[in-house]
Design goal:
Strand order of the largest sheet: 4-3-2-1-5
Structural class: alpha+beta
CATH class of the largest domain: Mainly Beta
Number of domains: 2
Shape: elongated
Largest sheet: 5 strands, antiparallel
C-alpha cells in the first residue's frame, strides 16, 4: 500500500486530522479528516480555524501537492475542535469608554493581570500585537505576546501613548487563549 493511502485510511478510520495543500494554491489549506477516498478522489470533512464543521470538500487526488499529518497544527486544531463551544462563549466585559486623555492607560490598567483574556493592541495605527497585559505603569506596559497557534512569544514593553486601538476577547483571541492554556497544560 502506498504511504499516501495509509495516511488517508488512518484519517478515515480514526477521524485523524490532516492538512491538504493543492498545487498552484499556496494560500489555501484544508484541515479535516477523510470521509472516503479512491484512486481518483478524496472527500474530507473540512473544519474552520475555529473548530466548526465547514462542509465537505471533494478534490482530485492528482491536484494534491502534499498532505500534512501528525504535526503541531493538527494537534492544535484537534484541541480547537474539541473546545469549539468554549471559543464561542464571549465573556461579558464592562469596559466603560473614557473621555479622559488617558483612555489608553485606563483600558490597559483594567486588563492588567487577567490571564483569561487575550487582547490585541494596535500600536501607532499599524499592527496589532496580541497577548496578556502583565504589568502597567504610568507610561508603559508589558505584554506577554501570544501567537496565532497559542505559542508563547515572550514579553514586550510598549509605551502606552503609542496605543491607538484594542480588540479585546474577540473570537480570534479566545482561540489564542485556549491554545495558550493547552500549550501550558492548564486546560
Amino acid at each position: 500500500m502506498e504511504i499516501i493511502n495509509r495516511i488517508l485510511e488512518r484519517s478515515k478510520l480514526n477521524k485523524e486530522l490532516i492538512g491538504i495543500w493543492k498545487y498552484n494554491d499556496d494560500e489555501s489549506f484544508w484541515c479535516g479528516y477523510v470521509i472516503d477516498y479512491n484512486e481518483t478522489l478524496v472527500k474530507i470533512q473540512h473544519y474552520t480555524k475555529y473548530g466548526k464543521p465547514d462542509g465537505i470538500i471533494i478534490s482530485q487526488m492528482a491536484n494534491i501537492k502534499n498532505i500534512d499529518f501528525d504535526d503541531e497544527y493538527a494537534k492544535a486544531m484537534q484541541v480547537v475542535i474539541d473546545y469549539s463551544k468554549e471559543i464561542e462563549k464571549e465573556e461579558n466585559l464592562n469596559l466603560p469608554l473614557s473621555e479622559s486623555e488617558n483612555w489608553d492607560f485606563e483600558i490597559v490598567k483594567k486588563l492588567e493581570g487577567n490571564l483569561n483574556i487575550v487582547s490585541s493592541i494596535e500600536i501607532r495605527n499599524s499592527e496589532y500585537y496580541s497577548g496578556f497585559i502583565i504589568e502597567v505603569s504610568e507610561t508603559d506596559f508589558v505584554l506577554r505576546c501570544v501567537g496565532k497557534m497559542g505559542e508563547d512569544e515572550g514579553l514586550v514593553i510598549y509605551k502606552t501613548e503609542d496605543v491607538t486601538g484594542f480588540r479585546i476577547n474577540d473570537i480570534d483571541n479566545r482561540r489564542r487563549c485556549l491554545l495558550y492554556k493547552w500549550r501550558k497544560a492548564s486546560l
